């Protein structure tokens, strides 16, 4: 393979990117000035050096702002610690935050589970979630867990799996489990939803 083919293959591995789109990305870069390419190449190493995972919610954050390995959201004392929202990915969390309609805590699963997937823990942070729930409940006395996952087959499958896995824990501790209301139309990915849609989905959760 040559450089162009190598880059196309790399972009093809990005979520939602097909062969033709990956090819367009590469030729777009080829048309840019050297300073633009230098900026991209200089930023990439910092993804490993300056970005880390919050030990509590599992979201990515800038490590320069770290305190006790916690992100700014987990350090915010004004948030309602009794309500926990479970999201699939960091981009979903950012979409919720942009809507300014939620002031609780988060847990990021790190993905969703395809319908026919058997190895669930290879897809999401299931063990980490269970451990987090135990710790959060002891500290904050959880009252509600919101499953805020995509309104598509993978999201619905993951919702069912999570519900089943934490059912005994929530029943034992009298914790309500809710899912986002149908402000989200079927097939919707949370990261692409506008603030008003997210607001309605949160308001109408059940």
- What series of H and E elements makes up the topology? HHHHEEHEHEHEHEH
User: What is the spatial order of strands in the main beta sheet?
Assistant: 4-3-5-6
Please summarize the sheet with the most strands. 4 strands, parallel
Helix proportion of residues, in percent?
40-55%
Classification by helices and strands = alpha/beta
Describe the structure.
This protein is α/β, with parallel strands linked by helices and 206 residues long. It folds into 2 domains: 3-44, Orthogonal Bundle (Helicase, Ruva Protein, domain 3), CATH 1.10.8; 56-203, Dna Topoisomerase Vi A Subunit, Chain: A, domain 2. The protein is 46% helix and 14% strand. The chain is built from 9 helices and 6 strands, in the order ααααββαβαβαβαβα. It has helices spanning 3-12, 19-30, 34-43, 46-49, 72-75, 90-99, 126-140, 153-172, 195-203, and strands at residues 51-53, 60-62, 80-87, 104-108, 144-148, 176-179. α6 links the parallel β3 and β4. α1 packs across α2 (19-30) and α6 (90-99) packs across α9. The longest helix is centred in the last third of the chain and has 20 residues, at 153-172. It is globular and about 60 Å long.
Element layout with pairings:
Blueprint: H1 3-12, H2 19-30, H3 34-43, H4 46-49, E1 51-53, E2 60-62, H5 72-75, E3 80-87, H6 90-99, E4 104-108, H7 126-140, E5 144-148, H8 153-172, E6 176-179, H9 195-203
Parallel strand pairs: 3-4, 3-5, 5-6
Antiparallel strand pairs: 1-2
What is the compact description of this entry?
With 206 residues, the chain is of the alpha/beta class. Helices cover 46% and strands 14% of the residues.
């Amino acid at each position: 393979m040559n450089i162009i083919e190598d880059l196309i293959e790399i972009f093809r591995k990005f979520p939602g990117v097909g062969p033709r789109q990956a090819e367009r990305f590469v030729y777009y870069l080829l048309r840019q000035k050297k300073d633009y390419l230098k900026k991209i190449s200089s930023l990439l190493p910092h993804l490993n050096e300056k970005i880390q995972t919050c030990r509590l919610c599992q979201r990515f954050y800038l490590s320069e702002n770290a305190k006790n390995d916690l992100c700014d959201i987990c350090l915010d004392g004004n948030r309602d610690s009794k309500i926990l929202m479970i999201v699939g990915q960091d981009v979903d969390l950012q979409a919720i935050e942009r809507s300014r309609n939620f002031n609780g805590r988060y847990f990021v699963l790190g993905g969703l589970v395809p319908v026919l997937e058997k190895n669930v823990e290879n897809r999401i942070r299931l063990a980490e979630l269970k451990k987090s729930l135990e710790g959060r409940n002891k500290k904050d006395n959880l009252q509600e867990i919101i499953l805020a996952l995509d309104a598509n087959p993978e999201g619905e499958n993951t919702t069912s799996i999570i519900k089943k896995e934490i059912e005994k824990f929530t029943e034992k501790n009298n914790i309500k489990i809710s899912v986002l209301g149908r402000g989200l139309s079927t097939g919707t990915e949370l990261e692409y939803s506008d603030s008003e849609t997210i607001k309605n989905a949160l308001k109408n959760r059940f």
